[in-house]
């Protein structure tokens, strides 16, 4: 996926500090874009004053590399969309972006603002603010959602990275084909805690862990059914996809398609 370069607004005050800040922040953006942790760390002053306001956490330079590494996704997909142009005023720059995830009831987003201050070519101060936004509007439970993220030790970028990592794990490994798959196994395989995964599924996707698995298993059944030229026994496909209860499969199937498996196969045959 090609990621567009960060658009930039005019510098408010055309002084040397503004030009130097502009160059550092573009290098900062490029380091995130290319997932270059070494290049990113090279942009921070060892005396960095870094505050993650969502977690109410002060991060020292010695903690910063691990903090950034945990926030940086392994996949190629860009997780953040810039919602405003880069604003620069002297030695301060403001980045505004949104991490958008697909929930079961629509888009769920984390809207983030980073205020970065530059001195002698290095970032010496960062204030990062984030708010949980559901369906592009602030809900009454917004504060509760923010507190939950904070308790779980997740920054806005880290929630996006969690979504990307879970998607990659389930798409590539297809662990849901195992009917005995449980949350501790997923946590062990992905490196996230059970609480973090449960929070993401419940608060972002609006699903329980097992409802999420059943959706994946049902998609697998439909994919195999459509790929098969000869009629297949639907119950055998369900079991092969990880369903260990046919009654659960029939219920999920009708909820998703509006018809029973037998009616669906009959319609497809015709």
Structure description:
- It holds the Pfam family SnoaL_2.
- It comes from Pseudomonas turukhanskensis.
- Keywords: DNA-binding, Transcription, Transcription regulation.
- The structure is a single chain.
- With 270 residues, this protein is an alpha+beta fold.
- The protein has 2 domains: 16-207, Nuclear Transport Factor 2, Chain: A, CATH 3.10.450.50; 214-269, Arc Repressor Mutant, subunit A.
- It is 48% helix and 21% strand.
- It has 11 helices and 7 strands.
- Strands 1, 2, 3, 4, 5, 6 and 7 form a 7-stranded mixed sheet that branches.
- β6 and β7 form a beta hairpin.
- α8 (209-227) packs across α9.
- It is elongated.
- The two termini are 39 Å apart.
- 23% of the residues are buried.
- Mean pLDDT is 80; it is low at 10-14 and 135-144.
């Amino acid at each position: 996926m090609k990621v567009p370069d960060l658009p930039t607004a005019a510098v408010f005050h055309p002084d040397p500090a503004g030009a130097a800040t502009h160059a550092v922040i573009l290098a900062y953006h490029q380091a995130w874009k290319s997932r270059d942790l070494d290049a990113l760390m090279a942009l921070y002053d060892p005396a960095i004053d870094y505050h993650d306001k969502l977690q109410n956490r002060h991060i020292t330079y010695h903690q910063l590399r691990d903090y950034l590494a945990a926030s940086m996704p392994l996949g190629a997909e860009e997780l953040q969309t810039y919602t405003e142009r880069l604003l620069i005023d002297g030695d301060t720059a403001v980045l505004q972006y949104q991490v958008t995830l697909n929930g079961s009831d629509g888009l769920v987003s984390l809207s983030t603002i980073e205020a970065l201050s530059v001195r002698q070519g290095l970032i010496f101060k960062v204030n990062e603010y984030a708010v949980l936004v559901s369906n592009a509007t602030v809900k009454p439970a917004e504060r509760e959602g923010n507190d939950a993220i904070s308790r779980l030790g997740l920054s806005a970028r880290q929630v996006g990275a969690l979504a990307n990592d879970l998607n990659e794990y389930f798409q590539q490994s297809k662990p849901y084909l195992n009917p005995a798959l449980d949350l501790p196994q997923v946590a062990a395989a992905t490196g996230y805690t059970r609480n973090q995964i449960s929070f993401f599924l419940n608060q972002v996707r609006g699903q329980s862990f097992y409802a999420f698995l059943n959706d994946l298993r049902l998609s697998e059944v439909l994919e195999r059914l459509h790929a098969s030229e000869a009629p297949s026994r639907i119950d055998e496909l369900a079991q092969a996809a990880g369903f260990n209860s046919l009654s659960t499969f029939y219920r999920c199937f009708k909820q998703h398609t509006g018809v029973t498996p037998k009616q669906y196969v009959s319609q497809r045959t015709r």
